Amino acid sequence: MDHKAFLTSLSAAQRDDLTTRSDAKGLRHLVGHWGAIALCLNLILFKVPLWQAIMVVQGVLLVFLFTLLHETSHKTPFASGWINDVVGHICGFVLFLPSNWFRYFHFAHHRFTQIPDKDPEMEAPKPQSRGEYIRHVSGIPVWISHFKTLIGNAVGAQHADYIPTARRGKIKTEARLYLAGYTLLLGLSIWLDSTVLIYIWLLPILLGQPFLRLYLLAEHGRCPTVANMFENTRTTFTNRLVRAIAWNMPFHTEHHTYPSVPFHKLPELHVLAKPHLMVSEDGYAEFNKNYIREALD
């Protein structure tokens, strides 16, 4: 059974239940994630014992806001559209990744998942050697890509087909507002002679990015270039903490199969889809161990 046949097999009642969005569940999860970030922030500011190690935890929590940004691009974490938009822009600002631009990029990824020359995620090839793997995991290429996107959008250089012509002005304005915000924060930091943002934000996201790279590589790495979502996307079995930080996105095959399902309903969708999964892995460490052994020259 492919993913289309699976979707057809779901009853109308199942579809309605699976796609029910909730402000309460979304906000509760948001408070947990952002609350953990606030806790780490204060521990770093007050330089409690081992505060340098806490910067790594802070970094992981911050970079995994990408999974929330990703979810807001589908407008599924919250029932209220405006909450999705506000939260998406906050996450995008923290990660130097414009929210509206990312929505169009990500929709193209869903429409053409694992289709060469069409899926924009495949523009950056997966690592094929140990050197490429180390560079990929370092996060350097993705930061370069983020800043190229920001500057390119700000000057109106949006040439990708997935950006609608009618929305390019909006994308330009978004990037300029983000850059204005960064300039303001930089100016305030210089004026106040403060390095606070370095220790609670900038350095942590550099330290946390490798963990996100290892995580994201499992979503489609070493998956076939076919249209069936049960084959071209991987579900990774992991613990509750990782699923919580990643907003249940380890259930990635399920997400690609039915993108309208909000994060809190993905475990239910997983129960239904599990017999049909064709590509899965028992943990991210296991995936990366196998990737290094099988995919690298």
Could you explain the architecture of this structure?
This protein has helices at 3-9, 12-18, 23-45, 51-63, 65-74, 81-95, 99-111, 130-138, 140-154, 168-191, 196-220, 229-232, 240-245, 252-257, 266-273, 284-295; strands spanning 235-237, 280-282. The chain is mostly helical. The chain has one domain. It has a two-stranded parallel ribbon with strand order 1-2. The longest helix is centred in the last third of the chain and has 25 residues, at 196-220. The protein is globular and about 60 Å long. The model has no long low-confidence stretch (mean pLDDT 97). This is Fatty acid desaturase. One of its GO terms (cellular component) is membrane. Pfam families: FA_desaturase.
Short summary:
This protein is mainly alpha-helical. It has helices spanning 3-9, 12-18, 23-45, 51-63, 65-74, 81-95, 99-111, 130-138, 140-154, 168-191, 196-220, 229-232, 240-245, 252-257, 266-273, 284-295; strands spanning 235-237, 280-282. The chain has one domain (3-295).
